[in-house]
């Protein structure tokens, strides 16, 4: 799951990144509101941690723009601010923030609020089991079954299938898959994605079985959103 931190205090961004990555999140960050808006136009995360006071574009205005855009109108937003007065909290929530936490704050409390918000907004992301048609992925046991029979996937193929199943129908570019499955700090060729998609398909698909992975020419790959209907 991906979190975008929009915060101009470098030390706080570093602290949040460290703790979020330790919890298994993929983290992007921006120190300016306008830079964050550009990032959101390129890729939509699962949650935004948004500082109230930012250079370039305020957190309040950015939150308004997030809610005004169809693609991000339901994007979970937690606002971080030094403003603790009741009027400020009401204003922050009134612009569309889902939660509000005052600096200085407890990192464990923030992590608990993130998990609680994601459970409400994206229940599939915190479920131990993903299923579509005759395909079932057990996230805790790291097992995949199709038609009741267990399949043998390598760790990378498992992560790739999990990543795609979390967003059925959404087309991911090779670069997005590299970031989401391998991580930002791993430098490998984009063609590696094609190799692992091929291995995943070989492991998933038997004779005359429909392929749940859809290739979108010139764009990337998606988990076929119609697979559960035809399987």
UniProtKB/TrEMBL annotation:
Residues 2-118 form the Response regulatory domain. Its main location: cytoplasm. The modification 4-aspartylphosphate is found at residue 51. Gene3D superfamilies: 3.40.50.2300, 6.10.250.690, Winged helix-like DNA-binding domain superfamily/Winged helix DNA-binding domain. Residues 127-225 form the OmpR/PhoB-type domain. It is found in: Cytoplasm. PROSITE patterns: OMPR_PHOB (PS51755), RESPONSE_REGULATORY (PS50110). Residues 127-225 bind DNA. InterPro entries: CheY-like_superfamily, OmpR/PhoB-type_DNA-bd, Sig_transdc_resp-reg_C-effctor, Sig_transdc_resp-reg_PhoB, Sig_transdc_resp-reg_receiver, WalR-like, WH-like_DNA-bd_sf. The keyword Cytoplasm applies. The keyword Phosphoprotein applies. Transmembrane segments: none annotated. Keywords: Activator, Cytoplasm, DNA-binding, Phosphate transport, Phosphoprotein, Transcription, Transcription regulation, Transport, Two-component regulatory system. SMART domains: REC, Trans_reg_C. This protein is a positive regulator for the phosphate regulon. Transcription of this operon is positively regulated by PhoB and PhoR when phosphate is limited. This is Phosphate regulon transcriptional regulatory protein PhoB. The gene is phoB.
């Amino acid at each position: 799951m991906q979190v975008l931190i929009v915060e101009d205090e470098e030390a706080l961004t570093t602290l949040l990144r460290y703790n979020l990555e330790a919890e298994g999140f993929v983290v992007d960050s921006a120190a300016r509101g306008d830079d964050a808006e550009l990032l959101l136009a390129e890729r939509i995360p699962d949650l935004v941690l948004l500082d109230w006071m930012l250079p370039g574009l305020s957190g309040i205005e950015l939150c308004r723009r997030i809610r005004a855009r169809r693609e991000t109108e339901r994007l979970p937003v937690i606002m971080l601010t030094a403003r603790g007065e009741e009027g400020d909290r009401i204003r922050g929530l009134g612009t569309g923030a889902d939660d509000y936490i005052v600096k200085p704050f407890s990192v464990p409390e923030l992590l608990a609020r993130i998990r609680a918000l994601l459970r409400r907004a994206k229940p599939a992301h915190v479920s131990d089991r993903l299923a579509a048609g005759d395909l079932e992925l057990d996230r805790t046991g790291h097992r995949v079954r199709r038609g009741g029979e267990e399949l043998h996937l390598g760790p990378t193929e498992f992560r790739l299938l999990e990543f795609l199943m979390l967003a059925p129908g959404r087309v991911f570019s090779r670069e997005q898959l590299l970031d989401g499955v391998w991580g930002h700090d791993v430098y490998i060729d984009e063609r590696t994605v094609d190799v692992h998609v091929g291995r995943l398909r070989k492991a998933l698909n038997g004779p005359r079985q429909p392929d749940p992975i859809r290739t979108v020419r010139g764009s990337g790959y998606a988990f076929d959103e119609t697979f559960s209907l035809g399987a």
